[in-house]
Request: fold
Amino acid sequence: MARGTTVKMWRKTIGLLLVLVVGCFGAIAVNLFRLQILEGEELETRAVNQQTQDTSLSAKRGTIYDCNMKVLATSADVWQVVLDPNFIRKELVPDDASIQDTIAQRLAQILGEDSAEIRQLMEKQTYYAKVADEVETDKKDEILDLKEELGLGNAIQLQPDYKRYYPYGAFASSVLGFTNSEDQGVTGVEASYNEYLSGVPGKLVTAKNARGVDMPFQYEQRVEAQDGYSLVLTIDEVVQHFLEKSVEEAAESCGVRNRACGIVMDVDTGAILAMTVKGDYDPNDPYTITDEADLETINAIPDDEEHAEERAQALRTAQEKQWRNKCISDTYNPGSVFKMLTASMGIEEGIVNENTTFSCGGSYRVADRNIGCWKLAGHGTETFAQGLSNSCNPVFMQLGEQIGATTFFRYFEAFGLTRKTGIDLIGESNSIYYDAEGLGPTELATSSFGQSFRVTPIQMITAAAAVANGGYLVQPHVVSQILDSEGNIVETIETEVKRQVISEDTSARVSAMLQETATTGTAKNGYVAGYRIAGKTGTSEKIDEWNAAGREGEKKYIASYCGYAPADDPQVIMLVFFDEPVPQNGEVFGSAIAGPPFAETMAEILPYLGVEPKYTEEELAKLDISTPGVVGLGVEEAQTKVSNAGLTYKTYGSGSTVVSQIPEQGKSIPKGGTVVLYLDEASTSETVTVPSLTGLSLSQVNARVAQAGLNLSITGAAASGSSAVSDTQDLAEGTEVPPGTVITVNFVELEAVH
Reply:
C-alpha cells in the first residue's frame, strides 16, 4: 500500500514537473518568438535609438546663376553654436566652479540669447547641445575670441551651416522665389527645382552608455552631407534690370493699383530672358509686406487678442499676394493684343489678305446688339492691313464671323490657350474660355478682339511668339542647365517645339502688318528707330468685375503692349502688362501707358543682345550724333570742327582756348544741336533752368528748349506720329544745368485704343 502510494506520488510529481518545464519553456519560446520575430525589428530600432543619437548635418543648397553665371541666389556660410556639457563638467568645472555661469553670460551677450536657457543646456547629460543657428561671421569671430580668452577647448564648437542669400535683393524675386526656415523652396524656381537644389543632409551618430550619457567622440560616426545641384537660368541679369526699371517706373507713373508685370522671351527657343512683377518683395526678407496699401489695411486692424485672427489672415493674404507671380498665376482679357492671333487665323485660312476691304461705321451689329469700335466715329472704308493698324474692332468681328466658331476654336487651342504652358515654375493657372459649342455669335465676335476669355500673360506671349517665329509653338522655360556640386552639367533643357500653328508665310505677312502698326498705327508708342518693331497694344476692360458690380461705378482696365523685333527676323518678344492704372481725365490710354516702357526696354536690350539697327533715311535724318571733342583747341579751330559735324556752337567767356564743353566729347546730341564752348574757368559756372516740357506738342517743346539754351533729344511717338504729346522728361523741371545740356523728352499718342 505504502509502496503503491509512493509510486503514484512520484508519477504525479514527475508529471507536474514536466508540465511546469514544458509550460515555462513554452512561454519562453513564445516570448522569444514574439521578441525576435514579431517585434524584433521594432525593439532593435528602439535599442538603437536608446544607444545612439542622430544629429542632422545641413547640405549646402545649390547656387542659382543667370545665363552668364552671375550669382542670383547662394547659400552663404554661417555657423551653428554647439555646447559640450559633459566636457564642461569633467574638464572645466573641477578647476573653476563658476565657469558654467561665465560661459552662459558671455555667450548670451554675443548671441542675444537668454543666459538662463544657455545655462540650463549645460545640465544635459550629453556631448552635444545646440545653442543657436545661422550665426554670422562677426559673431563667430567673437566666440572664437571668447574660447581663446577663457581656454574653453571643446566646450563650445562652431559647426558649418548655410543661410540662403539673394545678393540683388528684390531683383527677379518672382522667378527666384525664396526658402523657408528649413531651407526648403516656397515659391519660384526655389520650389519647382527644390529636389535638385536641396541636396541630401548628412548625419552625425553618437553613442550613449547605459545611463544615457553620450560616449566620447571616438564612438561617433559621421555621414557627410551631399550638396545640392545648381541651376543656370535663362534669365539675363542685364535684360532683367532693363525690364524691371522700365516696368517699375511706368507702374509708379500710371498709379497702377493691382501690380504690373513684364516678360522678355527668345521667340525661337522659349527661353525667358527676363520676367518681373511689380510690386514685388525681397526674398531675403519675404515675410515683410512691401505694398503700402496692404500695410495700411493690416495696420487698420486693432492689434489685440480679439482681432488676432483677423489681423493674421490679412497678413497672410498680403504675403501670398506679393509672392504670387502675376505673369503665370493671374488670368486676364488680353484685349487687342489678341488681334495678331485672329489676323493670323484669317490669313492662314485664306479668308482675307492685306488688301481685303472692310467698312467701319463705329460699331458692328451682332445678333441683337451693336458692339462698338474704340473710335466712335468709325474708320470708314479700310483694308485689312489698315484695320489691324487702326485696331478696328468691327473689322475683327467681321473676320471672326467669317472664320466661324469651329475653326476659331481650333486655332485658339493650337496656339496653346486651352491648357497651361508647362513653364517650369509652380503656380501656373489655366485659361478660362468658351469651347466651339459655347462660341455663340456674341462670344465669337468679342473673342475675335480679345474679350470674353481669360488667359495668363505667359500663355499670351507664348502664342504671340508663334506668330513671330514662323508659326512654331515653343515651350517656355526659365532653367537652361542643371549642374552638380563640381560644376559638371547634369542636364540641359533643350528647345521643345510643340507644333506648327501657322505657316512661315503667314507669320511673315502678319509681322509686316504689325510693323506698320508699330511704326505709324495705334501701336507707335512702342516704336524704336532702326529696330523694326512689330507690335500691338491692348486696353482690355475688366468686364466681369463690372458686370458683377451691376455695371455701376468705375470700369477698370488692363493696359498692355506685346511686340517683337526685328519684324523681318524676330529675335525677342516682350509683353508688358499694367493692371488697373489710374484713369487720366476719366480715360485709360493703354497705348500711352504700356507703349513707352516697352519702347524704353527694347531700345536698351536690342543693342545689348547684338541686334543691329537698320535705319530708314527718315530715321537717319532724325538720329542723334556723337559730340566732337574740342577741349584744348583754339576758338576758331573748335568752331570749325563743331560746324563740320553739322552742329552749331555758342561761346561763353573771353579766352582764346576752349577749356570745357557741353555736351562733353562722345555724348549724344541731336543733329543741328548746339555745343556750348567755355573759354575760361569763370564761365563754366553758368547755368540755366530746365523748363516744364510735358503735355506739349513737339513744336512747343522745341521752342521751350531753345529758349532755355538747351538741346532736345526725343524718344517715342514723336519720331513717327504727327499728333504726339510729351509725357516725360529725364531732367525735372526747375533743375539747374549747364547751357547746352541735352534733355530727353518722350512723346506718346493719346488715343484710347482698346
Remarks:
- Residues 2-38 form one domain.
